[in-house]
Design brief:
CATH class of one domain in chain A: Alpha Beta
Distance between the termini of chain B: 31 Å
Number of helices of chain A: 18
Shape of chain A: elongated
CATH topology of one domain in chain A: Beta-Lactamase
Strand order of the largest sheet of chain A: 2-1-5-4-3-6
Helix content of chain B: 40-55%
Number of strands of chain B: 5
Oligomer: heterodimer
Structural class of chain B: alpha/beta
Strand order of the largest sheet of chain B: 2-1-3-4-5
Number of helices of chain B: 5
Strand content of chain A: 5-15%
Strand content of chain B: 15-25%
Shape of chain B: globular
Largest sheet of chain B: 5 strands, parallel
Number of strands of chain A: 6
Order of helices and strands of chain A: HHHHHHHHHHHHHHHHHEEHEEEE
Chain lengths: ~450, ~130
């Protein structure tokens, strides 16, 4: 190194690069020296950075080594240098001394191949980190993805615990064994559907695939595909249900088919009680106002709300778009028909201010409210909670609440001050809401 | 009769598996699947230790935990929270609100038994 660097200066590694290039070409030192008219011993001093080189000898050596002179004198490519420096900076060294940042040129000169590997790895790491960051961001801001992940993890948890029991409990009672096998089968089907939906979501296979991660969502997909209206059932009643199910690829799995059948049986029952041929013209005559139609259902408001949501939208009778949510007494969603920007979450609870939940506190009392979402969109909501089927004397009634939604811009009335609501606390930006249960996760 | 544990979990198959394992270990297990009425159930049954899922219909487990800690009669009730992998915010919040420990789904039965024993025995620990 003598004479090759002053204090604070990086060493000139022209000699090192000459040597590396010569070796890469398979040239002997004496052959190269002879080709450029210098002695082998002098070239040896040059190659070990013990003699400066420039001018004609440098040009001759560059020509003999078939490279640009600058490549011998300027060292590594600036981008390469940056990448190696970034690698040293970003990755904390867990063992050994810290990286010798002042000797990067020497590293590149002596080991250009390994330097390239370090730079390439740094580039890949940076790319992967950006991808992970993007996915984390997507997970945090994409409720569909977060819900699907939760579904998959819950399923995996059930499978893990159940299979653990089956493996580790050789003397398991036959009934318990059968039960756990059945649970395992159910969860495996659920996991299969969830994983498929997740993949479809990542691959951007279209909006419908987002809804197919659970049996409930698959049953819902059948209704969405049909526009929540089934002419065959309207015409032939419950006899047409099996044909509807057979023609629906969304509900091939047993659990989804069971839920779809349950919902279609209710649809058929409703259609039999309030046939389309008579109900549609009556509803059109009063602009589909539930208040004006309540009498025709004998006061069964839940039936009326469900039938309005099952009308064929548009058409000659200009049926408006309706949304529908049905929940049980715990608030868990049983059925939904989505409408525009009014988000009805599949998991967790919706907004506690929705009349859907208020109706549960006042059974059999139909309610009507004007709602305003955080983005200013308004909807009229009609809601009621009623027992499902007769409870019998002394029996506890099973309650369900139904809420019908209609956008104000679509003919709904806009009187009075609206109730400010949201899509549920998790997604709601109304930070100062008195009904807020938890912080928003995706805001 | 062993210590009484109340498992607030809406996933029926998870409940059945955990309930079976804990019963075998001598716990007296009962379950509840509705977040909205969980506090009433806790008050009614008075468990020795609570296993509480975060994601529940009706009400979040975190909100239930917050209320438990605010009430003198349940302020010291040992609580093991069940969270999902990837939801580190839930885990942090659970510990900040006073959970004694948490398990992330999916967990092994052995982890559940071991952690619950530690929680019921007064141990303060956190799992990842």
């Amino acid at each position: 190194m003598a004479g090759q660097k002053g204090k604070g200066q990086r060493p000139s590694l022209t000699g090192t690069r000459i040597r590396e290039r010569r070796l890469a070409l398979g040239l002997r030192q004496s052959a190269l020296a002879g080709a450029v008219g210098i002695s082998a011993s002098y070239l040896n001093l040059i190659e070990h950075n013990k003699r400066r080189i420039g001018g004609k000898p440098l040009l001759d050596l560059a020509r003999a080594l078939k490279v640009e002179p600058a490549r011998l004198t300027q060292g590594m490519d600036a981008t390469l240098s940056d990448m190696v420096q970034a690698a040293a900076r970003d990755i904390a060294c867990g063992f050994g001394p810290p990286p010798e940042l002042d000797r990067i040129d020497e590293l590149a000169g002596r080991f250009p191949g390994w330097t390239g590997v370090i730079a390439e790895q740094q580039k890949r790491i940076a790319g992967l980190e950006a991808a992970v960051e993007g996915l984390q961001d997507r997970l945090g801001h994409d409720p569909v993805l977060a819900e699907a992940m939760h579904e998959v993890l819950s399923t995996v948890a059930a499978i893990r615990s159940t299979s653990d029991i089956l493996v580790r409990e050789p003397d398991l009672d036959r009934n318990w064994r059968g039960r756990f096998h059945r649970n395992l089968h159910e969860e495996a089907e659920r996991l299969s559907a969830g994983a498929t939906a997740l993949l479809a979501h990542f691959e951007g296979q279209g909006a419908r695939s987002e809804t197919l991660s659970t049996a409930q969502e698959r049953a819902e997909a059948l209704f969405e595909a049909a526009g929540h209206h089934f002419p065959a059932i309207e015409a032939d009643g419950a006899d047409a249900i099996e044909a509807v199910l057979e023609a629906a690829p969304e509900v091939r799995e047993a659990a989804a088919r069971r839920l779809a059948r349950r919902d279609l049986e209710r649809y058929a029952h409703d259609a039999a009680r309030l046939p389309l041929a008579g109900f549609l013209p009556m509803a059109a005559a009063v602009d589909y106002d539930p208040q004006a139609l309540l009498a025709v259902t004998g006061g069964d408001a839940a039936l009326l709300l469900r039938r309005l949501a099952a009308l064929p939208q548009g058409g000659a009778q200009a049926v408006p778009a309706f949304g529908l949510a049905i929940c049980d007494a715990s608030g868990a969603l049983l059925f939904r028909r989505r409408i525009g920007a009014f988000s009805i979450p599949r998991y967790g609870a919706g907004c506690p201010l929705w009349p859907l939940y208020g109706a549960l506190a006042r059974p059999m009392v139909p309610d009507r409210q004007l709602l305003e979402l955080p983005d200013g969109l308004r909807f009229v909501a009609w809601a009621v909670s009623q027992p499902v089927g007769p409870a019998g004397f002394g029996g506890a009634p099973v309650m369900e609440a139904v809420m019908l939604l209609r956008a104000v811009s679509d003919g709904g009335e806009a009187e009075g001050a609206p109730v400010p609501v949201g899509p549920g606390c998790v997604l709601c930006p109304r930070e100062d809401c008195a009904a807020r249960r938890e912080e928003g996760r995706f805001g | 009769m062993g210590s009484r544990v109340l498992l607030v979990e809406d996933e029926v198959n998870i409940y059945e598996a955990i309930s079976f394992i804990l019963s075998r270990e001598g716990w007296d297990v009962s379950g509840h699947g509705n977040g909205a009425t969980a506090l009433e159930e806790i008050a009614r049954t008075g468990p020795d230790v609570l296993v509480l899922d975060v994601m529940l219909p009706g009400r979040s487990g975190l909100d239930i935990l917050r209320d438990l800690r605010a009430r003198p009669e349940t302020a010291d009730l040992p609580v093991l929270m069940l969270t999902a992998k990837g939801q580190s915010k839930d885990r942090d919040l659970a510990l900040a609100l006073g959970a004694n420990a948490y398990l992330t789904k999916p967990f092994s039965n052995a982890e559940m038994v071991e952690t619950l024993r530690a929680v019921a025995g007064g141990g303060q620990q956190a799992r990842t």
